[in-house]
Amino acid sequence: MAISVENGVFYLETAHTLYQMKVDSFGILNHLWYGAKTDCCMDYLLDYPDVGFAGNLYEAGNRRTYSLNTLPLEYAAGGAGDYRVPAVSVTHADGSSALDLRFREYQIRKGKYGIPGLPAVYADEDEAETLEIILQDALSAVEISLLYGVLPRADVITRAVLVRNNGDSGITINRAHSLCMDIPYGEWEWVHFHGRHVMERQMERASLIHGIQESSSTRGTSSHQQNPAVLLCEKDCTETNGFCMGAVFMYSGGFLTQIERDQLDQVRVVMGLNPDTFAWKLDSGECFYAPEVILSCSEHGMGELSRRFHHVIRHHVCRGEYKLSERPVLINNWEATYFAFDEEKIERIAEQAAELGIDMMVLDDGWFGKRDDDISGLGDWFVNETKLPGGLGGLIGRINGMGMKFGLWFEPEMVSEDSELYREHPDWALRIPGRNPVRGRYQLVLDMSRAEVVEYLYQVMSRILRENHIEYVKWDMNRSICDWYTAELPADRQAEVPHRYVLGLYELLERLTEEFPHVLFEGCSGGGGRFDAGMLYYCPQIWCSDNTDAHDRTLIQYGTSFFYPASTMGSHVSAVPNHQTGRVTTLQTRGTVAMAGSFGYELDLNRLSAEEKAEVACQVKAYKAHQELIHNGLYYRLSNPWEDNMSAWAFVSQEQTKVLVQGVVFRAAANVLRLRLRLAGLKADAVYRSSQDGQTYTGRALMSGGILLPKLKGDDAAFEICLEEKSFANAKVNFAI
Ligand code: DGJ
Which pLDDT belongs to residue 17? Predict the structure, then answer.
């Protein structure tokens, strides 16, 4: 049993971790522990200090030491004596906003709970258990179900929240976070992933100040600027040592993560829908599900924590035929042609790609409506016959005839003012009556909270997918959202629009992915502006960034790797000088970096020299040979590119018999020793043969002494070393290391 209850204490156990909470004599659910297994009840850590200005529960009588403001709480509500950041807050019909949550009952079930209309971690019935704890407000009939999914083998616990209004009058939910975690002891730092368009998920680690630190998005998407994932680690935690825990919000809209270090140095983390762009009216008898948070922790540093998240995302978040299977190597025409293409240009690129072993031609933006630049055409999902006189069918037929698959770009959620769709349905765009809408990349946003808009998009897209042999869809989304208003809802429900937008998006994705299981859907939002576990439920890969510069990509992919596996990161080789940075890197470097993901090309292959084409053919072959290891292997970060002069990583097979070490050394130096890199994740006693020099080394030597990298020339020079285990019997061990 992963979940058990003894004397009011709940034990949630995974292979290596333990989560504990306890109902106390006042019916308050205390958080006791999330960490390594301890084999005992951790309530001895509860302290009851007498702190001035920390109010006391009325029933505690004169016991000044019992305060909701100092106790570690499992789910903190606002307005009832705890002044730290709340997880939940409501406004009752009488205008008051207190919630005094007391334990009522619990239920343990086999299998993992699901959430209607929202993505959630899934598992077979024998892989997971569910705990539902119901808390009830002492006065109103507001009831809160805390849902816990325990996946023992994955070392993962999920949390979600269900708010029910069993009263006679309506309430408004102002905040309903799925995660609330109080940590009374320790010196903590937090790691978050900030950025901007073309520079997403830049890792930042900082100590906790007293007060609140947060990362968030109010942009209607999870955003380029902050990612809905956070890591909390002890001060001495490294890649390989020390305790850390991580939380990933499985949601693609606005979010808020807050970490408060309070007056007693206790830490509280909350994560959920961003209250700045969310409120929900809950009428009598209605209920509301808050999106899920995925949790994991490790005593052995951030590397192990990342690998746990990689596993759960690959096996219990991503779905569909491509979840674990090989992805096609693709060529996308965006950086090759932008909007300036015609049938012939695309076919020439495809012909060349087919010759070099590439599997799929993806036709990007510009194939539809009046779309010769980004000012017009969005919404008109019918073929642009000036560019493609033979229609989609003609082009696809010829590309299939070359032995290549075909993929197509869409940006379903958007509309250009200069489009037939907008002229017919101007009211379908989000816009506040009487105000001019904000334009982003000249475009407006369709009101995905409206059922008829979702239905229309489903009809249009499903027809194109049904009528054409399309094996891949790139689902783009190129602006942040504001102007939240829908004609469909009354004034007191307008704050629901941002969440209803995401529900509409998920409904459309669900219908299309279910009806077209053979199509590989790749998410995209100006690159990685919606790179989150919610989108990964529908799209097993996401275009990691519009920045294809190999140097910058090492930083972007490094940050992304803390929570998301390599298979989820769309990464392509593009032309030099790079279109975003102007930097020139070698084809080898571009190939090495792009291979650490779901691989492809984004350039006009016809402009390459014969030698370069030969190199591309070798890269494609190499990627196909390594893909299984890259996607299914265990990922190790071997350097910190923010501190070291290199970005290095390794993929180690599950059996630890094969290793692919890759990396880029940033700045070249003259007259220096060869660089040494310590490996990780190997079997200490095994002997590995290196592709670099044919030498053999023990795993222990490679992890302690490291390996010497080849002599490299030039800035941003890439290296790649393959190691394979040899049996002791026929191996010559190199003791010189
Ligand atoms: C943004 C994407 O990230 C690019 O790859 C490309 O598809 C453009 N949009 C097209 O408009």
Answer: 98
Nearest 5°: CA angle at 100, between 99 and 106?
110
Q: Are strands 520-523 and 541-543 parallel, antiparallel or unpaired?
A: parallel
Evaluate: CB of 182 within 6 angstroms of ligand 1: no
Whether 243 lines ligand 1, by a CB cut-off of 6 Å, is no
- Measured between alpha carbons, how far apart are the two ends of the chain, in Å? 47
| 436 backbone φψ class: left, alpha, beta (φ>0; ψ -120 to 50) | beta
Identify whether 283 is a catalytic site residue.
no
How far apart (Å, rounded) are the C-alpha atoms in residues 79 and 100? Answer: 8
Pocket flag, ligand 1, residue 528 (CB < 6 Å): no
What is the largest distance, in Å, between two alpha-carbon atoms of the chain? Answer: 86
Q: What burial class does residue 98 get, using C-beta atoms within 10 Å of its C-beta: 0-12 exposed, 13-18 middle, 19+ buried?
A: middle
Sheet containing 229-234: order of strands: 101-110, 129-137, 142-151, 156-165, 287-298, 244-249, 229-234, 188-196, 199-207
Task: Say how many Å lie between the CA of residue 410 and the centre of ligand 1.
Answer: 10
Q: Is the CB of 527 under 6 A from ligand 1?
A: yes
The residue whose two tokens read 């300036």 is 340
E strand or H helix at 571: strand 569-574
- Cβ atoms of 334 and 474 within 8 Å: the answer is no
Residues 6+ away with beta carbon under 8 Å from 114: 120, 122
Q: How far is the CA of 502 from the centre of ligand 1 (A)?
A: 21
329 closest CA partner among 183, 171, 520: 520
Q: Is 411 a catalytic residue?
A: no
Strand 88-91: give its sheet, edge to edge: 88-91, 171-176, 280-282
DSSP 634-671: EEEE---TTTSSEEEEEEE-TTS-EEEEEEEE-S--SS
In percent, how much of the chain has pLDDT > 90? 98
How many A from CA of 610 to the centre of ligand 1?
29
pLDDT of 735 above 70: no
> Is the distance from the beta carbon of residue 478 to the nearest atom of ligand 1 less than 6 Å?
yes
Catalytic entry in 532, 546, 615, 725: 532
Q: Kindly report the pTM of this predicted structure.
A: 0.97
Distance (Å, rounded) from C-alpha 642 to C-alpha 194? 14
Burial of 634 (0-12, 13-18, 19+ CB in 10 A): buried
What is the per-residue burial (b if ≥16 Cβ within 10 Å, else e) of 206-243?
eebeeeebbbbbbbbbbbbbbbbbbbbbeeebebbebb
Distance 365 CA to ligand 1 centre (A): 7
Look-up: residue for tokens 């390794």?
A: 650
543 CA: nearest ligand 1 atom: 3
pLDDT tens by residue, 113-156: 999 999 999 999 999 999 999 999 999 999 999 999 999 999 99
Helices 610-632 and 587-595, interaxial angle, to 10°?
20
For 109: left if phi > 0, alpha if psi spans -120 to 50, otherwise beta; the answer is: beta
User: Measuring CA to CA, which residue among 348, 347, 345, 329 is closest to residue 337?
Assistant: 345
The sign one gets for the Cα dihedral 505, 511, 513, 516 is negative
Mean pLDDT of the chain: 97
- Please state, in angstroms and rounded to a whole number, the distance separating the CA atoms of residues 690 and 674: 16
What span, in angstroms and rounded, lies between the C-alpha atoms of 485 and 493? 9
